[in-house]
Amino acid sequence: MVVDSATSQVIHVLCSVSQGSVLGPLLFLLYTAELAELAARFDVTLHVFADDNQLYLSCKTNEANLSLAALERCVTAISHWMSANRLKLNMDKTECLWTGSRSNLLVSRWRSG
Hints:
Blueprint: E1 2-3, E2 6-7, H1 24-32, H2 34-40, E3 45-49, E4 52-56, H3 64-84, H4 102-112
Antiparallel strand pairs: 1-2, 3-4
């Protein structure tokens, strides 16, 4: 690339996608389209925004442990899929957010603890 008569160094990429994807939005979506199908196998909803993926799951209080196990299996499957496609799941940015009414969360914590 040349900017103001300065030429940048040429680097040949053998595989993978660099930070700030060179694919562009449409090709990136095509490249990662299988993720939604993979999440659906675990009855988990996937929301994708740029290079950020969010998994959603709703359940009844008495199904919390089963839902959490399904979510964990889904994240593991996604991590394996990403590795197979030369991508990496950043576990430092992977977190679980549990929401519900105060009474539901107290009941859920009591039952699972």
